[in-house]
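Page 37, top half.
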Amino acid sequence: MPSSSKIREVVHGKLVWKDIEKPDEATLERLKDTYGFHELDLEDCLSKTESPKLEEYDDYVFVVFHFPIRNLRTESIDIESLNVFIGNNYLITLSHGRLKKLDETFLEMESDRRYRRENFAKGSGYLLYILMSELFESCFPQLSQIHHFIREIEGDIFEGKVAKDRLYDIILVKRQLINLKRAILPHAPIILQLEHLHTRFINKKLELYFDDVADKISRAKSLLSSMTDMIETLSDANESLTSHNTNRVMKILTIFSATLLPLTFITGLYGMNVPLPLENHSGAFFLVLSGMLGLLVVMLLFFKIKRWL
């Protein structure tokens, strides 16, 4: 069966990095025949796993990573899986081709012979560290962009720009933060497991390097926590501001209703076809109109004294 997957590889010495985009069943079957991977791990490469995971075997380790991807069409954060098989002489990555930093790192390894030699010479475990470091580092521009957006919302709210309700923007940021947490934070125990594998391809010497990746996850966790607190505060402030604006409008409308009620009564009364005071007076219209204006002024003064205005 012909394969629709895009397969590329870069080799230095005995170590090969094979990157597979959009893996299909035919490609996975060949991997099973070549490397003896467990069929359940290969099934995970075709399905969507809910969280990162690590499976250790005698001759290889299988890891599922999740990384956030910005959807430019919907302005939301999607979660992209990266499946990794790592053995003594190979690193195999499988994805759907949406991880830009993965592609950039592979192309750099492929085109820069010196860079490839320096990293491949240290083994497959170090190569995995380089890839993880680059991918987790690529999350910070997204965090910075969301932080900038939060500061923009903060400026609008606390400058009193009530004409521009930021409720939709606040909900969008909350959703983005939820997906970022879902993508990044569960990796902490996975990295800890990688540190303590101590196998031929991920040995104790790499513990310090994976500590660096753990530090990046910890830094991302701190930023996410801070931004979550900020957006919750802004959500409360926006709700209070919107409520205050609504109350102010209702107060103005109530004052209009209260002042127009007696004036409407007077005009309705003099519109009745019955004998009324001043009906034969030549200046009746102006007298009634003056009385209505006087009543309006008295009511407004009363509202002012009561501090309802």
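Page 37, bottom half:
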Amino acid sequence: MTTLASVLGVTSVAGLATGLGALPVFFRNRVTHRIYDAALGLAAGLMVAASVFGLVIPGMEEGTLRAVMTGILLGGFALLGGNYLVPHLHAEYREWFAEGGATDDDVAVMESPAEDSDAEAAPPTDETEAESAASASGLVDERESSLRKAVLIGGAITLHNAPEGLAIGVAFASGLEEVALLLAVVIGLQNIPDGFAFAVPMAETGMSNLRVIWYTTLSGVVPQVVASVFGYSLVGLGAGLFPVASGFAAGAMLAVVFRELIPSSHGHGHADAATGAFLVGFVLLVVVDAVIVV
């Protein structure tokens, strides 16, 4: 019987894979648009296949078509609603875009180091007192800037990664250990290019490589673990919730693919590379699914 501890362990391992995707920041001068777009395409292919083979089909086997389709619509529109309501920054290659109530000023904060915030100071009347005031003001501005960055980044990664953890928790709670392990493997694989896509623009803000890797790893672990616990607890509250819950997780994941991954992988002149990587990701999931089931 699956325990909450095993759910936490499996989801944490899948989330930790996000940090591997941040390793190329050490060589970011060599990271091209083609590689970036292909990584997003690979992640999209894995997520689409995982949604279909790991959630939709098992959900239909356990319940009705109506329940699963209802869950898909609820999950997809919930993701879109959160994307509209939650202030966050959408990351693209070396660029940030404001969404959900975030502003262009927030984008500027991400693109320029906070240390420059105390560059403009009032002419000193008393040199010692002015230097002290400027230092205090700069410290406050830097802390506020860091907090704002954390909130905006946290909103984006939660919207992106929570549906994946939810899917694992829902599958485990329904006694579908093979499906849950399949999802964990796929989500772990998908988290690598996902972490890469998130780390590249973050590295361009002037943040140190170690901090980029640390924050990228947390971006995968925290939302997925919290969401997996929620999904596990939700299905455990009542029998028969798996079809709707699996559809909800699948709908949210599909919305992420079409709202974030596919648009971000196009527009740089490498749509063919992204499409090819999408197909590779889809096939890879099918192969992994066949191996685990057998």
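Margin note: The chain has one domain: 4-118+126-293.
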